[in-house]
Design goal:
Two copies of one chain form a homodimer.
Chain A lengths: L4 E5 L3 H13 L3 E5 L2 H10 L4 E5 L8 H10 L8 E5 L4 H9 L4 E4 L4 H13 L14 E4 L2 E4 L4 E4 L2 E3 L3 H12 L7 H9 L9 H13 L9 E4 L3 E4 L9
Parallel strand pairs in A: 1-2, 1-3, 3-4, 4-5
Antiparallel strand pairs in A: 6-7, 7-8, 8-9, 10-11
The structure holds a DNA duplex.
Chain lengths: ~240, ~240
DNA sequence: TTATATTTTAATGAATTTTTAAGGTTAAAA
DNA sequence: TTTTAACCTTAAAAATTCATTAAAATATAA
């Protein structure tokens, strides 16, 4: 059987090169691109059997856009795609899987594991469609409805407009109703491991979220502060502890 | 929380000192070494939680050698390492990443960013260890329910509000039901090894905890004083033993 | 590009938590 | 009984954490 060709689409040259070295060592042919545009150009000329795609890419297209284009092309509609991402965000993961990606790996990753996963994907390269459902499409908590499919949030019958970050934050907290998350965990989950900003930035987003979904933002019913520990989502409709 | 110790391995005293001052200001304990040899000596005697390593070092070993040795030791195989380098060389970066370093910063660097990166590396380290949650999510002792996920405590059907320290103290004692801890051990476990305050401060927190969870705080059922020895948690539901 | 929306930083004050300190109480030893 | 050491209790000082706002920086869309 001919050598398989793997394309890495990743803007960090260090990661790209490290992957390239390791994949070559494993016996794959490797192509690299630093952006989605570049990747599409290369794909025109070379045969690619597998894509490793970073979500965060420079330029007008991100990794999702690239995957969308690839999957809509005749040549690559069933070529495996593995997503690399800085954040372990369920929404991103779902989005990727819905686009037809085969795996989702969070940076920083273990190289051995990554190689194993690639091998495994090649092995079971049958009809993929093993999309695992992650939670309900709609989250309803009292007067709050979060539609994760339409990306809409309704409060007391009104559609409210959230920014992407606010939406992700709300969905993450709501999907883990009751569980307390400290700021560091939230930064990792929603901003990604390579976020170098201030931890207080979480507070500000919580505040803005509250002004949008709470009746009285200073006395929140949904997004609760657990002093010294973090924040949690509460469903005011549910009764006490069991 | 205990203070983290960062070791700087850098031969340029100007850079070393500048980093040292800034890291101290951020609340870290700082150790310095001017060569790999020196670093290895210090590591024998002191606990180090993070290494900042310059690649170009005087003597027979360079930064890569040092990292290789550290990573092969049991004590530091998973201690974070940040590489400082004068050249923004992809090959060096790759080599560093392959050795297991966590970040790579090129001189001259922005101090603010460096501090942020260190913080971020610590962040994902702690979140990684938080993943392996041990013990049950709920601790139940007679009329007392401790929910370690929601960070809630229920007493006789009522939700009581504890401060972070009170909560941690209660969880620690309850997880070790029956075992007696003296004040010094409690200070070590809950305040951190570098706490230099009064040992009586434990009494005060025990007192406040009792007023919140005990029916009669002066005749406690849950948090028992063992005179001359310390405190222990008891489950009044269980039968007594000698 | 400019304009607009979003995100981050920074700074203040308020509220809560933690520590200190000091006198009171209790239990065991002298 | 007296003494002593350990513990309890309370109040106030000190430190920390959070909410809030506005402005600066950044990203996105027109």
């Amino acid at each position: 059987m001919a050598k398989k060709t793997i394309m890495i689409v990743e803007d960090d040259p260090a990661i790209s090169e490290m992957l390239s070295i390791n994949l070559s060592k494993e016996g794959y042919d490797v192509l690299s691109a630093g952006s989605a545009d570049e990747a599409l150009k290369v794909v025109e000329e070379k045969d690619v059997d597998f894509f490793i795609v970073d979500i965060m890419l420079p330029g007008s297209m991100d990794g999702f856009d690239l995957i969308r284009i690839l999957k809509s092309s005749e040549a690559h509609k069933s070529t495996p795609v593995l997503i690399l991402s800085a954040k372990d965000d369920a929404a991103d993961k779902v989005a990727g899987l819905e686009l037809g990606s085969d795996d989702y790996v969070t940076k920083p990753f273990n190289v051995r594991e990554l190689l194993a996963r690639i091998k495994s994907i090649f092995r079971r390269q049958t009809t993929a469609s093993q999309m695992k459902e992650e939670g309900p499409k709609k989250i309803i908590a009292k007067d709050l409805i979060i539609d994760t499919e339409r990306l809409e949030v309704w409060v007391r019958g009104e559609l409210v407009s959230l920014t992407p970050l606010e939406f992700d934050l709300l969905v993450f907290l709501a999907k883990n109703e009751g569980k307390v998350f400290n700021r560091d965990v939230l930064l990792d989950k929603l901003w990604g491991y390579d976020y170098y900003g201030d931890t207080r930035t979480v507070d500000v987003h919580i505040r803005r979220l509250r002004t949008k979904i709470e009746e009285d933002p200073s006395n929140p019913k949904y997004i609760i502060t657990v002093r010294g520990k973090g924040y949690k989502f509460r469903d005011p409709g549910k009764e006490k502890n069991d």
